[in-house]
Amino acid sequence: MQPEDILNRVRDVATVRQVFGEPIERDGTLVVPVARIRGGGGGGSGTDGASGAPTTRQGWGGGFGIDARPLGVYVIREGMVSWQPAVDVTRIVVQAQLVAVAGLIVARSFIRRRRGR
Fold first, then answer.
1. Which secondary structure element, helix H or strand E, spans residue 16, and what is its range?
2. Residue ranges per domain, the chain?
3. Contact, 35 vs 17, CB < 8 A?
4. How far, in Å, CA of 41 to CA of 46, rounded?
5. CA-wise closest residue to 69 among 82, 84, 83, 87
6. H or E stretch at 37
7. φ and ψ at 78, to 5 degrees?
């Protein structure tokens, strides 16, 4: 696969449709989903063959990745637009657990310090 092929595929994938989903209309209310799209890629190449060698070493590689996360929806009702954020409950729970563990570690160090250890 050539670099141009990779860039063409990226262009096809990373479009506005990936961020603003298809609008949904029901009972006079229009809902437009919104997501955050991030991407990254890289490539490489190389030849390390000795001149006159029967085999010539070669190499080429590349890749691309995309991460999409829902942010929320725009709600359009009776000419008014409002924003309804998406709530990632898993992220909130994990962050709360990390804060709790950090608090326990700090409390343990204070208790040990008071005991003189």
1. helix 16-19
2. 3-86, 87-117
3. no
4. 18
5. 87
6. strand 29-46
7. 55, 40
Write the DSSP symbol of residue 2: -
pTM of the model: 0.53
Tokens of 102: 């950090």
For 75, what's the count of Cα atoms within 13 Å in the CB-facing half-sphere? Answer: 10
Q: Dump the DSSP string for 60-86.
A: EEEEEEEEEEEEEEEEEETTEEEEEE-
Which of 27-51 are b and which e, b meaning 16 or more Cβ less than 10 Å from the residue's Cβ?
eeeebbbbeeeeeeeeeeeeeeeee
* Tens digit of each residue's pLDDT (9 = 90 or more) over 3-56: 677 677 777 766 666 667 788 899 999 999 888 888 777 777 777 766 656 566
